[in-house]
């Protein structure tokens, strides 16, 4: 499980140090992909494979399936952290998330998210007031199942 918020720096080669708490889970390989809200999602390889199983076996004869498969795969990169625990974010993904030097790495339960620092600040400020209501609604609905 990925928890916490960290503020590593992106170097000139597009690399950053994974938080130490995340390194073991991601050491064998990971997938970086576009996510909603103009951030990136990092999944352990096994989690990504499991998560994409339904779309990988869906019929490619359906246009919506082909479109989703293309967008997902074209916007993803498989990586292996180096010996120092650094991960390289490809230029296309850095551009998508508007990543420069200051980034935020946030645990999001089953994934790690990478945000532009200003984007994270704006997002979290906008969500703060709604968080209590979401918590009550989401947990109540889930517990009532």
From TrEMBL:
The superkingdom listed in its UniProt entry is Bacteria
The record's Pfam families line, in alphabetical order, gives: MraZ
Where do the SpoVT-AbrB domain residues begin and end?
Answer: 5-47
Specify where it is mainly localized.
cytoplasm
GO cellular component, alphabetical, reads: cytoplasm; nucleoid
| Record localization | Cytoplasm, Nucleoid
SUPFAM superfamilies documented for this protein? AbrB/MazE/MraZ-like
A single GO molecular function, which one?
A: transcription cis-regulatory region binding
Matches recorded under InterPro entries: MraZ, MraZ_C, MraZ_dom, MraZ_N, MraZ_sf, SpoVT-AbrB_dom, SpoVT-AbrB_sf
Write out the GO biological process terms.
Answer: negative regulation of DNA-templated transcription initiation
The answer on whether this UniProt entry bears the keyword tRNA processing reads: no
Which controlled-vocabulary keywords does the entry list?
Answer: Cytoplasm, DNA-binding, Repeat, Transcription, Transcription regulation
- Quote the PANTHER family the UniProt record gives: TRANSCRIPTIONAL REGULATOR MRAZ (PTHR34701:SF1)
User: Subunit composition?
Assistant: Forms oligomers.
Instruction: Identify its protein family.
Output: Belongs to the MraZ family.
Q: What is this protein called?
A: Transcriptional regulator MraZ
Q: What species is given as this protein's source?
A: Propionibacterium cyclohexanicum
């Amino acid at each position: 499980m990925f928890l916490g918020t960290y503020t590593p720096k992106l170097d000139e080669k597009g690399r950053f140090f994974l938080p130490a708490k995340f390194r073991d889970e991601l050491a064998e390989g990971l997938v970086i992909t576009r996510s909603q809200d103009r951030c990136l999602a990092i999944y352990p390889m096994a989690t990504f494979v499991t998560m994409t199983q339904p779309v990988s076996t869906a019929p490619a004869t359906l246009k919506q399936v082909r479109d989703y498969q293309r967008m997902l795969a074209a916007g993803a990169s498989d990586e292996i952290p180096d010996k120092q625990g650094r991960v390289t974010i490809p230029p296309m993904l850095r551009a998508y998330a508007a990543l420069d030097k200051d980034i935020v790495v946030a645990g999001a339960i089953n994934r790690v998210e990478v945000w532009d620092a200003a984007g994270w600040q704006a997002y979290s400020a906008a969500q703060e007031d709604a968080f209590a209501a979401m918590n009550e609604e989401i947990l109540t609905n889930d517990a009532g199942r």
